[in-house]
């Protein structure tokens, strides 16, 4: 991804070149993409902080706050347009009552199912697995953060369920390069090593999962650039990652 500073440096380097050889349109596209990616990161980061401050009760609420971070409140004109749109569709009230009843019953049934499936901080390993399985990688990372490194460690302390260690490593590989995420990943990796038969779980990792683990450790090592002081204040140094590499046999 091309950053603003890289874009400026590239333009300086190209000043003496023929304009016909410079694709300014492509450079501008790269610049806008970089700015949008940076803005997205800070929006989602602010949303995560708000979710923690508000002490949301469920993982669904936490995830929805993050996913909706790009949305803006409606202005007066937009609210007026929605109101007028609703008035123009008032003919729906003339629909047969029987049909309305069926639709309402279906909606209520769907809402009930959603409530029954509503996520919360898992209290047992079974609850954790039930919430974990249907999620994609990004949502799994959110679930891990929502649950907390210490709590996840407690849930798997007696035994790491088959296949879960590799999936957790895969989810952690998606962490963002910021101090809170780095601290969380290190703390969770440390907690997992305290599980019974942890070494046995390592042996059951597939070759792909072992490569994922290696990539995760390398990403952690490279994340120390320009963050040594902040991480040191959290008790995390490059030696911490070296110890993790030894424990995970990387």
Automatic annotation (TrEMBL):
Mention any one GO cellular component term assigned to this protein in its UniProt record: extracellular region
Q: Which domain of life is it from?
A: Eukaryota
What's any GO biological process attached to this entry? determination of left/right symmetry
Q: Which UniProt keywords apply?
A: Cell projection, Cilium, Cilium biogenesis/degradation, Cytoplasm, Flagellum
Query: Where does this protein chiefly localize?
Result: other
The record's Pfam families line, in alphabetical order, gives: Dynein_attach_N (PF15867), RPAP3_C (PF13877)
Protein's UniProt keywords contain Cytoplasm: yes
Q: Cellular location of this protein?
A: Cell projection, Cilium, Flagellum; Cytoplasm
Q: Where is the RNA-polymerase II-associated protein 3-like C-terminal domain?
A: 122-210
Q: What is known about its subunit structure?
A: Homodimer.
Q: Under what name is this protein listed?
A: Coiled-coil domain-containing protein 103
Q: Which organism is it from?
A: Cryptotermes secundus
């Amino acid at each position: 991804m091309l950053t603003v500073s890289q874009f400026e440096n590239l333009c300086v380097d190209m000043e003496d070149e023929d304009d016909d050889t410079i694709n300014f349109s492509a450079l501008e596209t790269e610049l806008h993409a970089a700015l949008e990616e940076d803005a997205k990161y800070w929006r989602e980061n602010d949303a995560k902080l708000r979710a923690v401050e508000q002490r949301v009760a469920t993982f669904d609420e936490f995830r929805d706050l993050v996913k909706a971070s790009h949305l803006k409140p409606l202005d007066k004109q937009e609210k007026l347009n929605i109101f007028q749109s609703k008035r123009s569709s008032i003919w729906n009230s003339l629909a047969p009552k029987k049909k309305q009843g069926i639709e309402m019953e279906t909606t209520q049934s769907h809402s009930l199912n959603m409530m029954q499936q509503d996520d919360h901080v898992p209290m047992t390993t079974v609850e954790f697995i039930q919430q974990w399985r249907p999620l994609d990688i990004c949502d799994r990372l959110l679930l891990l953060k929502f649950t907390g490194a210490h709590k996840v460690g407690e849930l798997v302390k007696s035994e790491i369920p088959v296949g879960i260690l590799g999936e957790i490593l895969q989810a952690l590989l998606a962490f963002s390069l910021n101090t809170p995420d780095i601290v969380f990943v290190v703390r969770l990796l440390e907690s997992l090593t305290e599980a019974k038969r942890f070494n046995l779980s390592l042996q059951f990792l597939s070759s792909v999962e072992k490569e994922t683990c290696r990539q995760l450790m390398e990403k952690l090592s490279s994340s120390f650039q320009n963050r040594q002081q902040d991480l040191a204040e959290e008790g995390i140094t490059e030696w911490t990652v070296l110890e993790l590499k030894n424990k995970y046999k990387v």
